[in-house]
Q: What sequence folds into this?
């Protein structure tokens, strides 16, 4: 780790780390809306969650042990066993909570007090009881299933010493017999001083260990000694093939990792070194090149001054990363710009390592610079990290295989980001109609957790409007004149279709709005209560750095 990393106290909460969605139904966790629509009937039951699932949530926690409560990073990754009737019979999780309990590895989930419930529309709640240092701690979650293979999940703790928010995924586990071949990975979090830290890389597993390459960005800096570093180490699975460990060693840092297997093509990583850094994320089987054609992307992180920024858009690419016809939308701390053209001035992909380096013309994070990104193609999208010294953007790019989403059936939805109160995590389920705008053609229910200040079962009436050209881009507006009762009172999103069932988006609510605007990234995914096929690429596009420790903001 960089020994000269400096501590900086943030005046605003930066976005916390991965994926995302669900809905809280109990009135004890927050206010309710008088305009709550009836639940959509999608055919989900408690039996839709049966088996062993990998749960992964990253976000922020409130350290209440200090004289002034501080916001600090938080991550939880592990497995739970659900019995299909509302009970969680067992589980094991790793918890990284540096401001409170520290790093707790292999913590057992108790069957006593742990359980879940599911509505017919796939929305549900769950509680996991774990024992840390002799004290039972309950973690409360909202989730929305997109199939029996899992869905999107967020943390919804809001009381006492247990205040936190975060987003992630829940995935049905399929044990792997071994780890072989090459993987690309993306991790985000904080360094030992609490500064934002992101890393991407790739490695090949051989008989003597792993070899590969890795890039880092620490607090908006990725210069000499940070990029294209030689990577060595090891990665092994336990006898059950469901979990394991890895060590990733470069000249910048050596990371001890717990590996949680979703299947042989998708792994969850959480860094387990006591004292940090504090990182978590995903690893996917590596692809040899970018897929030529149109791609879409979302990125999030911080600009050059440390303020939150999100960006999204599309471009045409060849296999070597040469981009043309690119258009970017971004929200830099509430200052919004849409449809800004960009392209590459140079691109190079190295087949031996699977690493691409893209230098961009016209791209922006609020200022005009020559931005450089490292991108590692994988089965979970191209894992991207800014590797210059003008900010920290991290996320993913996806080959686009459709330009419109289906208007039949339901969707699970998430948004995760920041507003004036701190980290925000929105969870929803909605139905889409083909009715043309300006009529409302999205209807559903939304929950919101603004760092322990939940709003529950809010009616969601919104309008989607595709671009006039079939490029897969469009806008979604839930205006203040509708029924939406979230903290900022509205939502303004720009979305990008990956395929008919997978859509990614950014939040472009500006500071000119009554509650000061909101930055965020998210996804919505088509639901099928009978399909068991896992939905790919759920979390990676929401990767973002966590917060620096700073005083917590609590709404009165």
A:
């Amino acid at each position: 780790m960089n020994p000269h990393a400096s501590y900086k106290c943030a005046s605003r909460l930066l976005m916390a780390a991965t994926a995302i969605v669900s809905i809280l139904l109990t009135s004890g966790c927050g206010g309710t809306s008088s305009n709550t629509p009836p639940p959509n009937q999608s055919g989900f039951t408690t039996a839709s969650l049966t088996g062993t699932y990998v749960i992964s949530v990253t976000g922020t926690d409130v350290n209440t042990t200090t004289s002034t409560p501080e916001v600090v990073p938080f991550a939880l990754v592990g497995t739970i066993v659900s019995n299909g009737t509302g009970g969680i019979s067992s589980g094991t999780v790793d918890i990284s909570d540096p401001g409170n309990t520290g790093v707790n590895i292999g913590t057992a989930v108790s069957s006593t007090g742990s359980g879940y419930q599911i509505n017919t529309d796939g929305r549900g709640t769950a509680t996991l009881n774990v024992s840390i240092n002799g004290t039972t701690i309950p973690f409360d979650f909202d989730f929305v299933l997109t199939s029996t293979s899992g869905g999107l999940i967020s943390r919804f703790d809001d009381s006492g010493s247990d205040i936190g928010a975060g987003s992630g995924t829940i995935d049905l586990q399929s044990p792997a017999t071994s780890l072989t071949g090459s993987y690309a990975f993306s991790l985000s979090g904080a360094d030992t001083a609490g500064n934002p830290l992101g890393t991407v890389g790739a490695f090949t597993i051989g008989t003597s260990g792993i070899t590969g390459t890795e890039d880092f960005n620490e607090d908006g800096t990725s210069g000499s000694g940070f990029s294209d570093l030689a990577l060595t180490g090891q990665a092994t699975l336990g006898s059950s093939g469901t979990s394991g460990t890895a060590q990733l060693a470069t000249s910048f840092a050596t990371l001890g990792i717990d590996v949680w297997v979703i299947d042989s093509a998708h792994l969850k990583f959480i860094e387990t070194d006591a004292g940090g850094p504090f990182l978590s994320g995903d690893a996917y089987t590596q692809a040899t090149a970018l897929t030529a054609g149109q791609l879409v992307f979302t990125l999030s992180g911080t600009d050059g001054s440390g303020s939150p920024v999100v960006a999204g858009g599309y471009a045409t690419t060849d296999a070597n990363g040469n981009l043309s016809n690119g258009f970017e939308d971004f929200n830099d701390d509430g200052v919004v710009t849409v449809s800004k053209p960009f392209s590459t001035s140079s691109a190079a992909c190295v087949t031996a390592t699977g690493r691409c380096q893209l230098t961009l013309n016209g791209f922006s994070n609020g200022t005009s610079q020559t931005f450089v990104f490292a991108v590692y193609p994988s089965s979970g999208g191209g894992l991207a990290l800014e590797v210059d010294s003008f900010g920290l953007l991290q996320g993913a790019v996806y080959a686009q295989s459709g330009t419109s989403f289906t208007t039949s059936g339901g969707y699970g939805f998430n948004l995760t980001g920041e507003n004036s109160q701190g980290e925000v995590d929105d969870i929803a389920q909605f139905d889409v109609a083909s009715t043309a705008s300006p009529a409302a053609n999205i209807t559903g229910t939304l929950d919101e957790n603004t760092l322990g200040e939940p709003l529950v079962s809010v009616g969601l009436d919104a309008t989607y409007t595709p671009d006039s050209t079939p490029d897969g881009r469009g806008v979604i507006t839930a205006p203040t004149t509708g029924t939406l009762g979230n903290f900022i009172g509205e939502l303004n999103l720009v979305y990008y279709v990956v395929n008919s069932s997978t859509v990614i988006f950014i939040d472009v609510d500006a500071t000119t709005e009554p509650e000061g605007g909101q930055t965020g990234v998210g996804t919505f995914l088509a639901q099928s209560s009978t399909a068991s096929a896992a939905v790919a690429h759920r979390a990676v596009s929401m990767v973002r750095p966590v917060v620096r420790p700073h005083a917590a903001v609590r709404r009165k």
